[in-house]
Automatic annotation (TrEMBL), chain A:
Keywords: Cell membrane, Membrane, Transmembrane, Transmembrane helix, Transport. It comes from Geomonas oryzisoli. PANTHER family: INNER MEMBRANE PROTEIN YGAZ (PTHR34979). The chain crosses the membrane at residues 72-90, 129-150, 162-180, 186-203. This is AzlC family ABC transporter permease. It is a multi-pass membrane protein. The keyword GTP-binding does not apply. It is found in: Cell membrane. Its main location: membrane.
UniProtKB/TrEMBL annotation, chain B:
The chain crosses the membrane at residues 12-31, 51-79, 85-102. InterPro entries: Brnchd-chn_aa_trnsp_AzlD (IPR008407). The keyword Transmembrane helix applies. This is AzlD domain-containing protein.
Length: 242, 103
């Protein structure tokens, strides 16, 4: 394990852009939490135990003097269902690692450090410690953001004004570009995008991520093989007179 | 002075945490039991890209034509420079400018 520390630092560095926007958004959650009467200890407990941005927003929204425990748990389950797929997609990265190692690393997997790690893995240089280092860094940024918002009374109350809400979209778009594998991805990405748009229109919450991810993966399963596709492309090119 | 955490908060957040961690670890542990080749493997290989693409498409489309422009610029910048931060800032700048001008 002599590469543990440099790998963690490399992971943390790669997460700087996403951590900056997570911190800004964390401060918004902190402001909302202050209005709901959460103490800084409540906030830190939630940050440390749950560590999932979207779910925490919903939890704070549902927060009251008499906690709707069942509804809250169900809402968190639905919103975080995508982590089942995110976890599954990390299998190649964790191959050969012990159960204990997996158990220790997975808690700090969020959308952000997952996406950064997946894009790094396309270059063949991602490790589990890279993922974990990003997670630790993200946790620190997210937690300090929420505490600044909670205690400081929100200096970024309207992040939309500064396009901060688009920061996540932009950074995830950049990372998605890194995951593009070529022609074979046309079908799964097209199906994923279409399914995500439909689900976003007709289903509440974060279902669109699960729907799009599953639809894209299934289309890759039932769709033509890579070799078939190459032949098809050649046929088209022949027909076009190349 | 340390504020106390109410028992109901302890339970509610604790359950949310248990559910979230189970999903994270459960996905990883289930996947290691899946076949290593064939059609299922192809689905698993396509999953990361499909998942990340699904994450961004609705929010890009929600911004309309300028959202598509911002996303295209982001993609071009990251392809040219391999710099995620620069790409993110370019995309944000488009949306910031568009909103400021009320387009």
């Amino acid at each position: 394990m002599k590469h543990r520390k440099p790998e963690m630092i490399r992971g943390a560095r790669a997460n700087v852009p996403v951590a900056a926007s997570a911190m800004a958004y964390g401060s918004v959650l902190g402001v909302l939490a202050a209005q709901k009467g959460l103490s800084w200890l409540d906030m830190m407990y939630m940050n440390s135990a749950v560590f999932a941005g979207a779910a925490q927003f919903v939890m704070v929204d549902m927060w009251s003097n008499h906690m709707p425990i069942f509804e809250m748990t169900l809402a968190v389950l639905v919103i975080n269902l995508r982590y089942l797929l995110i976890g599954a997609s990390l299998d190649p990265l964790f191959s050969g690692r012990s159960l204990l190692h997996k158990m220790g690393m997975m808690h700090l997997v969020a959308d952000e450090n997952w996406a950064v790690t997946m894009s790094e893995q396309r270059n063949g240089s991602a490790t589990t410690w890279f993922l974990f280092g990003g997670g630790v860094f993200l946790y620190l940024a997210w937690s300090s953001g929420t505490l600044i918002g909670l205690l400081g009374g929100g200096f970024i109350t309207r992040p939309e004004e500064y396009a901060l809400d688009f920061a996540f979209t932009a950074v995830f778009t950049a990372l998605a570009v890194g995951l593009w594998r070529g022609k074979g991805d046309v079908l799964p990405w097209f199906v994923a995008g279409a399914a995500a748009l439909l689900a976003h229109k007709f289903l509440p919450g974060k279902w669109y991520i699960v729907a799009g991810g599953l639809a894209g993966a299934i289309s890759a399963m039932v769709g033509p093989c890579e070799s078939d596709e190459v032949e098809k492309v050649e046929e088209v090119e022949d027909a076009a007179g190349y | 002075m340390l504020p106390a955490i109410e028992p109901q908060v302890l339970i509610a957040v604790g359950l949310a945490a248990a559910v979230t961690y189970s999903l994270r670890l459960g996905g990883l542990l289930l996947a290691s039991r899946f076949p290593r080749s064939g059609r299922f493997r192809r689905a698993m290989d396509a999953l990361p890209g499909a998942l990340l693409f699904s994450l961004v498409v609705p929010s890009i489309v929600a911004e309309g034509v300028w959202g598509l422009m911002a996303a295209a610029l982001t993609a071009i910048v990251v392809l040219r420079t391999r710099n995620t931060l620069a790409a993110m800032l370019c995309g944000m700048l488009v949306i910031f400018a568009v909103r400021k001008m009320g387009l």
